[in-house]
What we know:
alpha/beta; Rossmann fold; 3-stranded antiparallel β-sheet; flat
Amino acid sequence: MLGYRFSEYVPNPDGDKSTFENLLNVLMQLLVYTSGNFSEAMDWLNQLDRQYGLTNDDYGMGNFLDDLKERGYIDEDEQEKGSFTITPKSEQSIRRRSLEEIFGKLKKSKPGNHQTPLSGMGDEKTTDRRDFQFGDSIEQISMTESLRNAQINHGIGDFRLTEDDLEVVENEYKSQTSTVLMIDISHSMILYGEDRITPAKKVAMAMAEMITTRYPKDTLDILVFGNDAWQIEIKDLPYLQVGPYHTNTVAGLELAMDLLRRRKTSNKQIFMITDGKPTCLKEGIKYYKNSFGLDRKIVNKTLNLATQCRRLNVGITTFMVAKDPYLQEFVREFTKANNGRAFYSSLQGLGDYVFEDYVRNRRKNVR
Length: 367
């Protein structure tokens, strides 16, 4: 009998993933850093392959490129042969991977569930019963209790079921929230040797994927602000880049308030990811700019908008990714004017802060 031969066990760090899946995971990360530029991301991937041996004799970069085309992750440019662009499937994959990376430890829940301690229109049944009221849905009617009431009120011999006999099951209230996510794309987001825009993009993509898949009744609007502010679509997030802009926080807040004004939900909030002080205003067709210190003209206008949001019951949560004391002092003043919240987060912990505060706010019911 030969028996068994043992050797040192070396675990596979990637589990049972294929070479294609491992390369795809790295490529999706690189596409976030290159703002969706596939050619640049592939150049980086080839450099990583030469340095760390990501491919092998059986599966090379040519095979990986063919599989990307075959599986619908990239399209070839018809006018410029050999040039590729990513597809909506890749955009969704990037958002999903961002969600898994940042919010991977979330507990699974039914889509749209955001419970509050209150009762009302919702999906989760409670043990409470009450009389039928105009506007209650048919699904809420407890037939067993209603039939029992009809027998008691009218007798078995002359059975009839009236509105007064109906009894409904109380449901848990499910609140809905409208959120505007503001992302600072001023030049300071890549200054001082620190990439702040990439973590901000990842958080935005993860949040967008979370809301659209887990809280489909909520609304999320995304805007960016530099010298001006403009709204972007979820599909635009992977391509987001920093520009040679100052920071017009006023324009961002005005657009956010306008977007929330159109929403019919009671719970409304603004999340703002920024690393710097407001340095710009638009006056007519001209820009008033001051990059040095905190200009009182700009600051006062910003604080006035924070106060307006408070009066409209719109909370602002500021996620500050810079640690300069005088900038944090401004954020404290801004937060006090709005009666909102502020988190002085590192780039690594930004996603945790955003998610925890979003869920906390979702549990509130306004009016």
